[in-house]
Design a protein that fits this description.
- It contains seven helices and no strands.
- It is an all-alpha fold.
- It starts with a helix and ends with a helix.
- Pfam families: CMD.
- This is 4-carboxymuconolactone decarboxylase.
Amino acid sequence: MTDRYDAGMATRRAVLGDAHVDRAEAAKEPFDAPFQRMITEGAWGTVWADDTITRRERSMLTLALLAATGNFDEIPMHVRATANTGASPDDIMQAFLHVGVYAGVPKANHAIKLAKQTLREMGVL
């Protein structure tokens, strides 16, 4: 493995937690192994591993971008990750308020619904 892969896996574990990454790794098959490697090196080993902005800020950006682009399936995972990145429920709401203004109220509304459900499951709300 590359240094970027190793850095990515360490960052991925720090943000998403060992249990999540272990499940993803156990589900990995030869078919999706190239994709898993790409996201580990690119998303986690390059973008998330960069310390120009904090992980809290990255969480807020990620949640806003997921909602703004309608990629709702990953919102609960990234809401759970806020327990490790330091983004608070208020931070999450601020990200989704931006989505409402700049990408549309229906997208923000759905993202907030998913976040509320996930935060309740986490015992935060």
